Automatic annotation (TrEMBL):
Record-listed E.C. numbers: 3.2.2.-
InterPro entries according to UniProt: Formyl_transferase-like_C_sf, MPG, MPG_sf
Family: Belongs to the DNA glycosylase MPG family.
GO molecular function: alkylbase DNA N-glycosylase activity; DNA binding
GO BP annotation list: base-excision repair
Domain of life: Bacteria
Class of enzymatic activity (EC top level): hydrolase
Ranges where the record places region Disordered: 160-186
Organism, scientific name: Streptomyces curacoi
UniProtKB keywords: DNA damage, DNA repair, Hydrolase
Cited PANTHER family: DNA-3-METHYLADENINE GLYCOSYLASE
Protein name: Putative 3-methyladenine DNA glycosylase
Length: 216
């Protein structure tokens, strides 16, 4: 018998831990996006950890800026950034207040509100592709910079919330190099900080960093 996912919201102290503890522990948890048209719920299947000043792959490696300010806490808040001039990506801030670390939400399975996600992801060939990759995940859930700084642990109504769900057993968690990260930050021997659920069809394919070519 498959256990019913726990709908209890995760408390702030869940996120007030080292990023390498929080990241794999997010697998199997449920992210709920409240929209005017109804909720969209997603089971997290793939994430990446980023550890601020200790991590050359992190947006906060060189210090605090207006763009990455939310990464410095408090934990349990949402950090949304815009990339390549076209896509948004969503992170959950963790660790102690004042020290920048966050978990990038890379992929998941839409478990509620798929009809709403399909309207935003018209190019998806099937429901397994609705949130298969960080930009697709944000698009499917209607997440953009307007939600940067949202408190996912706030009481009452909030546009984003994380529920306990069904944590993934440790023997089903895999880890390896982060996708598309350059230099030491993408070195899987140094930072094997992408975590995913083994054999889950919604996990995105690994791609090494490829420098963007400038148009002549």
């Amino acid at each position: 018998m498959i256990a019913t996912p726990d709908r209890t919201p995760l408390p702030r102290d869940f996120f007030d831990r080292p990023v390498l503890e929080v990241a794999p522990d997010l697998l199997g948890r449920i992210l709920v996006r409240s929209t005017p048209d109804g909720p969209i719920a997603l089971r997290l299947t793939e994430v990446e950890a980023y550890d601020g000043p200790n991590d050359p792959g992190s947006h906060a490696y060189r210090g605090r800026t207006p763009r990455n300010d939310v990464m410095f806490g408090p934990p349990g808040h949402v950090y949304v950034y815009f990339t390549y001039g076209m896509w948004h990506c969503m992170n959950l801030v963790c660790g102690p207040d004042g020290r920048a670390s966050a978990v990038l939400l890379r992929a998941g399975e839409i478990v509620e509100g798929a009809e709403l996600a399909r309207k935003r992801r018209l190019s998806a060939r099937n429901d397994k592709e609705l949130a298969k990759g960080p930009a697709r995940l944000a698009t499917a859930l209607d997440v953009d910079r307007a939600l940067d700084g949202t408190d996912a642990c706030a009481s009452g109504e909030t546009p984003l919330r994380i529920l306990a769900g069904t944590p993934t057993p440790s023997d089903q968690v895999r880890n390896g190099p982060r996708t598309g990260v350059a230099g030491d930050g993408g070195n899987g021997d140094i930072h094997p900080w992408r975590f995913w659920i083994a054999n889950d069809p919604t996990v995105s394919p690994y791609r090494a960093h490829a420098p963007r070519r400038r148009r002549s």
